[in-house]
Amino acid sequence: MSALDYLRQRNTPRTGNQILSRSGRLTLLVGIAILAALGPVVQSVQPFWLNLLVRMLTFALLALSLDFVFGYAGLLSFGHAAMYGAGGYAAALLVTEVTASALVVLPLAVVTGVIVATIIGWLSVRARGIYFAMLTLAFAQMLYVVAFTDLPATIAGMETVTGGDNGLYGIQLYELFGIDFRERLNYYYLTLGIVALSLAGIVRLANSPFGRVLQGIRENEERTEFIGYDVQRYKVIAFAISGGFASLAGALYVPFQSVANPQLLHWTVSGELVVMVLLGGMGTFWGPMLGAGLVVFLEDRLGSVASWEVILGSLFVAVVVFAPRGLAGSIITLRNDPRAAIGNAKRALENYVRKVRG
């Protein structure tokens, strides 16, 4: 039996509702292998692109963390910048004051994010919909002000903790088994490996009984509670897990950029993150990661163009009109029936015009 036959035979989900089929997982593995092979090529051609790839990967991880609670538990968080920034600041302070060992800093940064997310989640999950989103936004902005005004230093009577509006500069890179992460290619592989492991972990969680309950909460919260599940507890745990991964993204980003500033906690980061998830295709995991990569790429390439946000906004409108399920939905549709692409686009436009006219 060939490997292809084996995959075809085993491609049918065991429960009928698996997140990512075996062929989908194989495609992701191929994508990761391509990214791994791409690193040395990019470095030899133009090292700058390696920096861009690292930023794309860290935001892909951040988008993945939001998709876990937004796509699977229906919790629209406008405050994920809180955990992202908390992880970034935790990494900056630990590297500066304690140790630069990645084996120490990264786990502690994740724990920081989990603690922050647990507090925010516990105080917010009783609200629903837009009220939950506004509460998470409010908590993130509170943390932004705390970092901006360096409130911890004021309380502790220290000269500085967060560095105030200037932030913390000169954060050195991690140390791990004697590997020199000043070599950008090494840091690229570290980031790629962590993002790949995070994706595998989240897919595993989504396919577990815990993930099934989260989907049940998203589809019908009252019914899930009626059959005996503690919905609030599940939401808090999901939000905490998501916060841990968001914090990990921040802990990867800060040493790479050598700076931790209050902008990490600003609401614009959370807003941009929601756009990345919706643009890529909520609830697919790989779609939001693709959306994050695209947005970071466009920001970098169009940053010198005046009002480049107009271009990004136009792209988002086009996706909403022609591909309501995001880039992931369009790719899946194209894969299943390429000939129907133009017809589907026409029908999407007609439906949109019909809705606008009422």
Automatic annotation (TrEMBL):
<keyword id="KW-0472">Membrane</keyword>
<feature type="transmembrane region" description="Helical">
    <location>
        <begin position="236"/>
        <end position="254"/>
    </location>
</feature>
<keyword id="KW-0812">Transmembrane</keyword>
<feature type="transmembrane region" description="Helical">
    <location>
        <begin position="187"/>
        <end position="206"/>
    </location>
</feature>
<feature type="transmembrane region" description="Helical">
    <location>
        <begin position="101"/>
        <end position="123"/>
    </location>
</feature>
<dbReference type="GO" id="GO:0015658">
    <property type="term" value="F:branched-chain amino acid transmembrane transporter activity"/>
</dbReference>
<dbReference type="Pfam" id="PF02653">
    <property type="entry name" value="BPD_transp_2"/>
</dbReference>
<feature type="transmembrane region" description="Helical">
    <location>
        <begin position="310"/>
        <end position="332"/>
    </location>
</feature>
<feature type="transmembrane region" description="Helical">
    <location>
        <begin position="73"/>
        <end position="95"/>
    </location>
</feature>
<dbReference type="InterPro" id="IPR043428">
    <property type="entry name" value="LivM-like"/>
</dbReference>
<dbReference type="GO" id="GO:0005886">
    <property type="term" value="C:plasma membrane"/>
</dbReference>
<dbReference type="InterPro" id="IPR001851">
    <property type="entry name" value="ABC_transp_permease"/>
</dbReference>
<feature type="transmembrane region" description="Helical">
    <location>
        <begin position="274"/>
        <end position="298"/>
    </location>
</feature>
<keyword id="KW-0614">Plasmid</keyword>
<feature type="transmembrane region" description="Helical">
    <location>
        <begin position="130"/>
        <end position="149"/>
    </location>
</feature>
<keyword id="KW-1133">Transmembrane helix</keyword>
<keyword id="KW-1003">Cell membrane</keyword>
<feature type="transmembrane region" description="Helical">
    <location>
        <begin position="24"/>
        <end position="42"/>
    </location>
</feature>
<protein>
    <submittedName>
        <fullName>Inner-membrane translocator</fullName>
    </submittedName>
</protein>
